[in-house]
Amino acid sequence: TVFRSVWKEAEKLFADVAAAPDACPVCATAIGDTAAGSVPAIRDLLQTHLEELQSYNDAKAALEDAETAATQAHNQLVARLPAMIEHLSADDGDWFKNALIAYQAGVSRWPAADAPASDAIVAELETRLADLDQDIADIQAKQGEHTWVKAKASIDRLLKLQKEVALATRTAEQLNALHEALVTQATLVSGKIREKVQSLLDTLQAPMNDIYKEIQGANAKPIRLELPGEDDTNQQRMQLVIDFAENRPSVAPGGYLSDSQIHSVALALRLAAIKKFNGAAPMIALDDVVTSYDADHRRAIGAMLAKMFTNSQIILVTHDERFFNHLKDQLAAKDWQFTRIIGLDPASGPRFADHKVSDEMIADRWAKGDSAANEMRQAEEEWLLGIARGFGVNVRIRQLEKAYSYERSELASAIGGFLRELKLTPADVPGVNNRFITSLIKGDIENFGSHFQDGPYGDGSVGDEQTRWDEFKRFRAQFECVCGRTKYKRPFGLSKPVCAHEKCETQFAFRSPKEPAVVPLESAGNPTSEA
Question: How many Å apart are CA 272 and CA 205, to the nearest integer?
Answer without folding.
Answer: 9
